[in-house]
Design brief:
This protein is mainly β. The protein has one domain. The chain has one helix and seven strands. Strands 6-5-4-1-7 form a five-stranded antiparallel sheet. It has a two-stranded antiparallel sheet with strand order 2-3.
C-alpha cells in the first residue's frame, strides 16, 4: 500500500469523453489523500469518494505514468 495525494480533481467520464455527465460526478477530490494498492495484474488501484475501485496508474512505477502525474503524487 502507498498513499497518494490528488493534485487535480478527477471527474467521471464515459466513452472517450463524448458523453458528459451532469452534474459532474467527482471521483477523487483535489488535496485529499487516498490509499493505493498494487494488484496482481500490475496496476495501481485506489478507491474513490464512493468506495469504488479505479485504476490510477497502469505502470508499476506510478511516477512514470502520464495520467498519474497529472492527477496524483506520492505522499
Amino acid at each position: 500500500m502507498e498513499l497518494f495525494q490528488c493534485t487535480k480533481s478527477v471527474y467521471k467520464h464515459v466513452e472517450m469523453d463524448v458523453i458528459e455527465i451532469y452534474p459532474p460526478q467527482l471521483l477523487f477530490r483535489h488535496g485529499y489523500i487516498y490509499p493505493g494498492f498494487f494488484d496482481d495484474s500490475g496496476v495501481w488501484m485506489a478507491t474513490d469518494e464512493e468506495d469504488v475501485m479505479h485504476v490510477i496508474s497502469e505502470h508499476p512505477s506510478p511516477e512514470q505514468d502520464h495520467w498519474f502525474q497529472q492527477h496524483f503524487k506520492k505522499v
